[in-house]
Amino acid sequence: MKRLRVTPMPKLLPAPERLRQNAATLDLTSPQKVEVRGMDQTRAVVEQQLAKIKQLKVNLLKALGWERDVEEEMDRLGTPDERRLLMKELKTETDKVYAFLKECYAESDPIFRTAIAATLIKFFLQKTCRSLEDYHRAAYQLRSRGLMEHAKSDDPEAILIGYEHLKCINCATMERSEDDEIRRIAAAFSQRMQDEWNRRSRELQAQGTITLDQLRDGVPGRCYLNVDKEVVRRKDNDSKETTHWRFGGQVLVESVGGKVSLIDGVGGAPFTRWRDYALGKKMRLTLGEVNARYVPGRGESFPKVVKAIRRDMGLSEELAEEYLGKLQTFWHLIRRAVKAANREQEVRVGNSD
Question: Where are the domains of the chain?
Answer without folding.
Answer: 17-201, 207-352
